[in-house]
Prior knowledge:
Blueprint: H1 7-13, H2 16-31, H3 37-40, E1 46-48, H4 60-66, E2 70-72, H5 75-78, E3 81-87, H6 103-121, E4 125-131, E5 135-138, H7 145-160, H8 171-181, E6 187-192, H9 201-213, E7 217-224, H10 226-230, E8 239-242, E9 249-252, H11 254-278, E10 282-287, H12 293-305
Parallel strand pairs: 3-4, 3-6, 6-7, 7-10
Antiparallel strand pairs: 1-2, 4-5, 8-9
Helix pairs in contact: 2-6, 6-7, 8-9
Amino acid sequence: MMQELDIQAIRQFGNIEFLARQVVEGFISGLHKSPYHGFSVEFAEHRLYNTGESTRHIDWKVYARTDKLFVKRYEEETNLRAQLLIDVSPSMYYPREGKYENGKITFSIMAAASIAYMLQKQRDAIGATTFSDKLELQTPIKATSKHIHTLFLEFQRLLDAPAPNNKKTSTAKVLHEIAERLHKRSLVIIFSDMLDNMNDTDELFAALQHLKHRHHEVLLFHVKDSKTETEFDFEDRPYIFTDVETGEKIKLQPAQVREYYREQTKAKEQALKLKSGQYKIDFVEVDIRQPMDKILLPYLIKRAKMK
């Protein structure tokens, strides 16, 4: 089983490409011991054999190791286009102190880098976009080594950047813009805490439906610190809570509002899940205190379904 990510170590290490490789190799190694073993065997080069097709391209060496029939992929079978979208609004830099400082954005960048590494190994084309209330970075979608290296440099720059101030989030507006710009069928992978849309899911899902209408597939990772953002698990002493986007402050004792907060938050999260199911959006809840396999396995399953 993969270990929880060390958020502080990621920020201090200074080589996100190396870290992404370590995460992916550990994940693939772990899959060899899991029920999902089929995903891990030469995942960039093979697919499962389908009964009735020619046995001509079966890789018997892989069969000898795994007792499963895999067929060698050809390059045209593996090409997929993926657009990685990372929410970089101020709320993504929560928590602002302690062991998980800047945890949501750090986790999201590391997850995006790990998926980019897997896409590279699978010879797929990758693009990256960051957004708050507008598109901030948008790279082309390419598969060249030079382009992938540039992406990792952008991820590293983003990881080292300070938390922004005086920004809001407009996820729906950005998704509409992405839908208009993507002209070929792609897998759109989104990392966001969804905080700007928790009260108005209709606007968000209209934008997601726009992507689906243009024949894109969507994988939405709802990134959060479950301990504090869902469970409101704070010590029972007075706190001053600050809205990082508006600067509004409120002083309260957590115990006074904890039960109500949990009910409201869980109801909103459940609404997001239900609507995602209705719109055929792959929705994955991600806790920054959990291992990265909560992201990598859904990605591999989604990619397999697109072939």
